Amino acid sequence: MDGFAKYLVRRFFQFILVVFLGVSLTFLITNLSPVDPVEQTVSLMTNFGATDPRSVELMREALAELYGLQGSFLDQYLSFWGRVVRGDFGPSLSSFPTPVMSLIMGALPWTIGLLTLAVVITWILGNLLGALAGYFRSNLMLKLAGATVMALHPVPAYILGLVLLLIFGYAWPVLPISGGAQMNLQPSLTFDYIRSLILHGTLPAMTLVLAGIGGWFISMRSLVSNIVTDDHVVYAELGGVSSSKIFSQYVARNALLPQVTGLALSLGSVFGGAVITEFLFNYPGMGRLLVQGIYRGDYSLVLGVTTMSIIAVAIAVFVIDLIYPLIDPRVRLG
Amino acid sequence: MMFKTLVAAALGLAMTVLPAAAQDFIAGIPRNEALIIQGPAAQNAEWFNLWAPGGGASNNGLQQLTADTFWFINPEGTGDSAWTNALAADRPQYNEDFTQMTVKLKEGIYWSDGVEFTADDVVFTVETQIANPGMGWSAPFTVNVESVEAPDPRTVVFNLNAPNSRFHTLFTVRWNAAWIMPKHVFEGVEDPLAFNNNPPVSLSAYVLHSYDTAGNWVIWKLRDDWERTSIGQELEEAPQVKYVVYRNAGNPDARVIEQMNHNLDVINDIAPEGMFTIARQAGANSAYWFDGFPFAHPDPTLPSVLFNHQVEPFENRDVRWALALLIDIRAVAMGSYRGAANLAALSTPPTGTAIVDYYEPMQQWLTDFELDTGSRSIRPYDPTTADQIAALVRPQWGDDIPDDPDLLKRMFGFGWWKQDIQAATELLQKAGFTKQGNQWMKPDGTPFTIRLMVEGDNIPTLARAGTIIAQQWSMEGIQTTVDVAGPTNGQRLGAGDFEAAIYWTVETWGGHPDLSFFLESYHSDFIKPLGEVQPPRNLQRWQDERLDAIIETNRTVAFDDPKVAELGIEYLQLAVEEMPFIPLMAYNKFAPFDTTYWTGYPSAANPYAASGPFWSNLRYMIVALEANPNAPQS
Lengths: 334, 634
Known about the structure:
The complex is a heterodimer of chains A (334) and B (634).
Chain A lengths: L2 H30 L4 H10 L6 H14 L6 H14 L13 H36 L4 H13 L4 H15 L19 H37 L3 H8 L4 H27 L5 H6 L5 H10 L3 H29 L7
Helix pairs in contact in A: 1-13, 2-3, 5-6, 5-8, 5-10, 5-13, 6-8, 7-8, 8-10, 9-10, 10-13, 12-13
Chain B lengths: L1 H16 L16 E5 L23 H5 L4 E3 L9 E3 L7 E2 L5 E5 L14 H13 L6 H7 E8 L2 E6 L11 E2 L9 H4 L19 E6 L5 E6 L20 E5 L4 H9 L11 H10 L4 E2 L9 E3 L1 E7 L9 H9 L3 H9 L16 H6 L3 H6 L2 E2 L4 E2 L2 E2 L2 H13 L7 H8 L3 E2 L3 H10 L3 E3 L2 E3 L7 E6 L5 H16 L3 E6 L4 H7 L4 E8 L8 H4 L25 H12 L6 H16 L2 E3 L3 E3 L3 E2 L3 E2 L18 H5 L3 E2 L7
Parallel strand pairs in B: 1-11, 2-8, 21-22, 21-23
Antiparallel strand pairs in B: 2-3, 4-5, 5-7, 6-7, 9-10, 10-11, 12-26, 13-25, 14-23, 14-24, 15-16, 17-18, 19-20, 27-28
């Protein structure tokens, strides 16, 4: 087995281990939750009605049986892994008997659409500005841009979103502040629907971009600031290589490696949704689904969403590990 | 250069979004034909089975606009006008020992697919749910119904397992009730629990038009044959609202903005600050339950300080009374609702018919009520609380606050208990407590501390009330910490995992004096040991032989018997004497209406229907609304 094959096998076992531990931990945590889905449903059915106590007892027993919550912790754990392998997380307990996968499949396109776009835009803008600011340190416009993103960086996404909501929803009401698309418009590849998607996604995407850009900016500027003093860059400058070539070929490219790993992790975590932003703008993605699941004690749903997220992050890291040797020859271990 | 390109790109993006302002708010539906109501975020938007677990409590218009049953009680109403025969032609008819109930059905009512509604649908509803445990009303039907028959298409006879003078309440809507199933749809369904019932056939005036698969909106359309429904038969002309849109309008701030932008006609509930913003800025385009301050609509629920009677020292009546007398209710009203609270000294919400049946007749009794502190006898009731709250809010709201004492009582409640630190001290001493410095010690010598549980952000007004009460108790030497339970609140209340809590344990019909709605579950037969789940209500696990006697007598009295109100008064007097929980106020709900497109909303002056979007009685509001002639033309 050559060096690359050994590297591949090692990384694959790491991937399996990460998924196993992550999913097991999630199962443990959700099962320790004090929120009982049967009680949540009983509460929903009796909160406002005149239901007598004898009926409530009967209702509780029937629901426990219906939801399949019997069996020991180990039985449920093994059964859960069986379902994960089959790609089936069982029925949602808060939307019984709809399968969890069906709920996830309904929310996933919204989250992937919004977050992938926002993550990629944030990554490109943050790294570009960071690299430029690190290399052209005396440029006034870049200093100003840097100061702006640095000022936004510590502001929580919730506050940023709320400010955007007030500006574009109330002071200058040109953008929708709630939902994923216009009401009574059915999903289709028409201009109206696509425009509606863009309009409704603009504020959540802006929130994510503004909240996330600072992190990429700071790390990239820091990386570039270190690289510009490296011997190979100094030598290139002394050799008369143009600034743009030094920036793109010798500085930015070298600085990009850890950022690519970061991008992969961010893209992987897309599957967990952007909880606060989705809540704020009522965006119908995975984050909102996860919060609903937590509040309603629907641990099938919570497990489904978090397992998807864990597997996605692990796959992203694994893929990056595979691609790394192609980007950086030093990783091709012999 | 790069930066300029970025700025240009941003401007380009801005240009693409500008047309948003000119876009129809609802594609293809004229805004002035649609009533937009705050709805929930549906997790499973494709699901329209009302009879699945939890389905009958849906808040997206399904139960409010398409379902029907025998009777409705207007929670805001009083007397006979509060009662509506819906599918039933008359009130319930029981045999002498309440083991049989006969219901006569109205004629000429049809499902939206053209099939006639008959007694067979009712029989099918009951039998199917008994045969399928887990369905919404399976348990109460199984417990109560021995058999159900349809001797003719317009008559249903229920034979009961045991005498039950309140069996009809299963089919009586306050918020919801057992909805009748379409036999012709469900009889071909193999598993009614797994059937999504999409699209649903409707038995009421509206039918499904379209819905968002992402769960943010559902649009209902007026049926062409709306006259062939129970609600339609009562109307002289067609409802003006052609479309009803249940829309999840987002977080509380977004809801306020959307209403001020005229994109949300009916809000379910917002914090006082949001309400006051709308009142100040929307001005003539808004309507409320009260024309001005306090704006809020009092729900027939009773937020209270609940004590766990199975945890010492809260089983002691003197301790509970002492804690009540340590509360300055004016501060609680100002801090929780900024004064817009409807206070309650009696253990029933001060709404609907309770005002005339209980609050007004019991004022003298309350004023004369004497409490033995161990050292002396005091009269703790203060009938002037409403005037005091009015004086506190008048500097802010000026002329909105009337001088008429009767009006003030409607706005702020009839009265409450005077804060009396000395009397509380005497009561605690009577219970064997001692004070060391500023710390009260229990009879066993340990410090008297309290964990006061609140739900948290989900009900901000009650969380604020809990915080203020905790401060007041702490200042008087009982260290009280606020315990935020979040989503575990209901479960912890049920399991008895609390010492004291701010929540409601009393809900009533609102429009009827019968208190069995909650009181039935207060019988000692249903009290569980600590750790086991208590049936809903009586979360404080109050046990009293006198209470059992009242409940047992109430069971033998017909629903409309005048003796019902007498028994109600007996219960209320017992609750004052024992103070099993400290009633605070009605749950005041800020539910403002936008009048840009629709007028004629219910109000305190004209309480013809429920106003909360999730109450099924809302249907009576929807068909009564009138289009605003000055509305923008779409």
